[in-house]
Design goal:
Length: about 300
């Protein structure tokens, strides 16, 4: 950015006096005079001839005025150009909501490919607290402060929260086993292993795919204990009560006292990118790139 003394010099030259320039610049005449004196001293030339009739530009001052106007104009244009570029870059930024239960890990394997398609596309991670009220409000207002969130869903879930989903792949329902539980050492767990035991499962009607598993568990003699939503509180309860909790892969690091163990069944649940029904141009492009990459194969 140019030295502010240039703007003061131009104002004095255009107004013909220190006082009028001071009024235009909203500073004192003394401040104007000090700036002009400092500028002349720094340049080693006299810009104004001080006379009883006021200020007159010297020949050197007239030449410098033309160049000073060019410098100021060029600098302003350079700043505006840079700001427009930054604003354009910001428009390409996708705000991804993230919490303990909604990590953005799915991007790690495909980010390089996303950048090949659109190297200008950027992401901004927006952390949020995964509370029941907060999570619902975020999904109902996607596009305002957060553009997209990765998560589990079914048709009813999307309808209730007023959002849509770009399906990426299906996650297999697995177990998070407490370190002191009798099933902890197993490399794979079946429904028969749970017979006569308790297991935590998210509440009925939260997801139709999980409800199918619920019926199978109950009919096989497994005690199903409900929890309201996938959050740290549910995992804490499972660890404290030494009870397995049915979860999905991808949450291995949620709780240090629980270990994710695969299940010997075919129960799976849709996983994808949740976004507004009226997405921005950038969000549309982001979703289309993910679909073209076919992240489900990663």
């Amino acid at each position: 950015m140019y030295n502010s003394q240039l703007a003061t010099f131009i104002s004095v030259a255009e107004n013909g006096s220190f006082t009028k320039a001071a009024d235009a610049l909203y500073i004192t005449p003394t401040a104007v005079m000090k700036q002009i004196n400092a500028l002349e001293e720094r340049l080693g030339i006299t810009l104004f001839a001080r006379t009883n009739h006021g200020l007159q530009l010297t020949e050197a001052g007239k030449s410098f005025l033309q160049d000073a106007r060019y410098i100021v104009d060029y600098s302003d244009k350079a700043i505006k150009k840079a700001q427009e570029i930054e604003d354009k870059d910001k428009e390409q930024s996708i705000r991804i909501g993230t919490s303990i239960m909604t990590p953005a890990k799915f991007l790690l394997d495909v980010w390089a490919e996303i950048q090949k398609v659109n190297p200008r596309l950027k992401i901004e991670l927006i952390p949020f607290d995964n509370t029941p009220i907060n999570s619902v409000e975020i999904l109902k207002n996607l596009g305002k402060h957060i553009d997209v969130v990765a998560g589990l869903y079914d048709d009813k879930f999307l309808e209730e929260r007023g959002c849509v989903a770009a399906h990426l792949y299906d996650k297999q329902l697995s177990f998070a086993i407490p370190l002191t539980h009798s099933l902890y050492g197993k490399s794979e767990i079946s429904i028969d292993d749970l017979r006569g035991k308790s297991v935590y499962l998210i509440r009925k009607d939260w997801n139709e795919y999980i409800d199918e598993l619920r019926e199978d568990l109950i009919s096989s003699g497994v005690e199903v204990k409900d929890f309201d939503m996938f959050n740290l509180g549910a995992f804490n309860k499972a660890a404290q009560e030494n009870t397995p909790i049915i979860t999905v892969d991808g949450w291995e690091d949620v709780h240090p006292l629980l270990k994710i163990v695969p299940a010997n069944w075919q129960y799976r649940i849709p996983f994808g990118i949740l976004y507004s029904p009226t997405p921005s141009k950038q969000v549309k492009e982001f979703i289309n790139i993910l679909k073209s990459i076919n992240i489900g194969r990663k």
